[in-house]
């Protein structure tokens, strides 16, 4: 059995990271012309990254999640728009993070508990809402590689969401030309979680049944 107190805590950061553009940014301040020019470039990069994420109809990828103590757990990520996502952890982790498009669940089979958050109140909301101007919700982080785009997302008014940095690599085979390869979540207590993706598969057949789960609180309940 994996020792998972930190891994369980990190599981929610993993789910939030995929859809981190939900975090609203602080109001834009008046800036001089030079800064505004840089902001235009930054906005274009942000828009491109969000467009790439929203261009994914379905995706599967293998993931490795690492907590602040260096403990790692592996699994498979399944995503289907609009609003469905599943982090299926390796069997000995005995947990699951899943969204059915309405709510996000953390299911802990070791202690028979389920935590639930409405998507609109979680860091899932904005990425799922194509009407939101998500370019306002993050900032570009400079990199030394022109093929790498790094975006930091933070909401000063909601410090409990912490900071999430998403890393994209230019890829001609990925929707929108950018592939999300990893993200780092840092919560309000400086709790760091890193998630790395590999073996991305786009446009695969995914049934809606993939976003249900067995409720451990009552074995006779139907899947949610």
The name of the CATH superfamily reads: Lipoprotein localisation LolA/LolB/LppX
Q: How large a portion of the residues is in β-strands, by DSSP E?
A: 35-45%
**Overall number of strands:** 11
Radius of gyration: 18 Å
CATH names the topology as outer membrane lipoprotein receptor (LolB), chain A
Largest sheet: 11 strands, antiparallel
What is the helix content? 10-25%
- Classify the secondary structure makeup into a structural class: alpha+beta
**Which shape, going by the Cα principal axes?**
globular
Sheet with the most strands: spatial strand order: 6-5-4-3-2-1-11-10-9-8-7
CATH top-level class: Mainly Beta
Order of helices and strands: HHEEEEEEHEEEEE
As for the number of domains, it is 1
Could you tell me the mean pLDDT? 75
Secondary structure tally, helices: 3
Low-confidence stretches: 19-37, 123-128
Second rung of CATH, namely the architecture:
Clam
Q: Separation of termini? A: 26 Å
Give the arrangement of secondary structure elements:
Elements: H1 5-18, H2 33-54, E1 58-66, E2 72-80, E3 84-89, E4 95-100, E5 103-108, E6 113-118, H3 125-128, E7 138-141, E8 148-154, E9 163-170, E10 178-186, E11 192-202
Antiparallel strand pairs: 1-2, 1-11, 2-3, 3-4, 4-5, 5-6, 7-8, 8-9, 9-10, 10-11
Describe this structure in words.
The longest helix has 22 residues, at 33-54. 18% of the residues lie in helices and 36% in strands. The protein contains 3 helices and 11 strands, in the order H-H-E-E-E-E-E-E-H-E-E-E-E-E. Strands 6-5-4-3-2-1-11-10-9-8-7 form an 11-stranded antiparallel sheet, covered by helices on one side. It is of the alpha+beta class and 224 residues long. It has helices at residues 5-18, 33-54, 125-128, and strands at 58-66, 72-80, 84-89, 95-100, 103-108, 113-118, 138-141, 148-154, 163-170, 178-186, 192-202. Mean pLDDT is 75; it is low at 19-37 and 123-128. A hairpin with a 3-residue loop joins strand 2 (72-80) and strand 3. The radius of gyration is 18 Å and the shape is globular. It has a single domain (5-211), classed as Lipoprotein localisation LolA/LolB/LppX (outer membrane lipoprotein receptor (LolB), chain A, Clam).
């Amino acid at each position: 059995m994996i020792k998972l107190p930190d891994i369980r805590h990190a599981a929610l950061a993993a789910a939030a990271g995929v859809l981190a553009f939900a975090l609203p940014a602080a109001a834009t301040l008046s800036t001089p012309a030079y800064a505004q020019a840089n902001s235009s470039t930054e906005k274009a990069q942000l828009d491109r990254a969000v467009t790439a994420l929203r261009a994914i109809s379905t995706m599967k990828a293998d993931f490795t999640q690492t907590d602040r103590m260096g403990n790692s757990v592996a699994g498979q990520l399944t995503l289907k728009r609009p609003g469905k996502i599943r982090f299926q952890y390796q069997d000995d982790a005995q947990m699951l993070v899943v969204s059915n498009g309405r709510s996000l669940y953390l299911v802990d089979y070791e202690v028979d508990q389920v935590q639930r958050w409405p998507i609109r109140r979680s860091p899932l909301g904005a990425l799922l809402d194509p009407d939101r101007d998500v370019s306002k919700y993050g900032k570009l982080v400079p990199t030394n590689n022109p093929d790498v785009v790094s975006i930091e997302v933070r909401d000063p008014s909601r410090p409990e969401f912490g900071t999430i940095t998403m890393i994209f690599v230019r890829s001609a085979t990925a929707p929108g030309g950018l592939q999300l390869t990893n993200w780092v979540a840092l919560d309000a207590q400086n709790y760091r979680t890193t998630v790395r993706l590999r073996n991305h598969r786009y446009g695969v057949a995914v049934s809606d049944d993939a976003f249900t789960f067995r409720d451990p609180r009552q074995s006779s309940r139907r899947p949610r």
